[in-house]
Amino acid sequence: MNKAELTEWVAKQAKLSKKDAYEAVEATLEAIAHHVSQGDEVRLTGFGTFWAKPRRASQRINPQTRQKISVGAKVVPSFRPGSELKERIYKRLKVTEVGGKLQIKPSR
User: Fold this and answer.
1) Hey, where are the domains in the chain?
2) Other beta carbons within 10 Å of 18
3) Is residue 49 very low, low, confident or very high in pLDDT (cuts 50, 70, 90)?
4) pTM of the model
5) Angle, nearest 10°, between helix axes 3-14 and 18-37?
6) Binning pLDDT at 50, 70 and 90, where does residue 4 land?
7) CA distance 58 to 75
8) Measured by CB atoms within 10 angstroms of the end CB, which terminus of the chain is less buried, N or C?
């Protein structure tokens, strides 16, 4: 699902015009991005928590040259799903293995 599809879904579910739904989706995403970028946690009960997470500096290896590269410390966005979201996923999806690869399929 992309942003346009999400907007259309919100419009149908909330009985809004596509324009109003677009503005609601944009405002929601902007609010999450704004507060996380300020260092705040955004908790949506049942859905999950968004926050900025520090990542330590590390040494990596360039696969083409095999030389070590220093990667500086940085802050990355992070998300932890809430219990209701996890439960919904566990009930509706299952993992199967086909040819040594894992696949996600709807539960029957």
Assistant:
1) 1-40
2) 13
3) very high
4) 0.80
5) 120
6) very high
7) 13
8) C
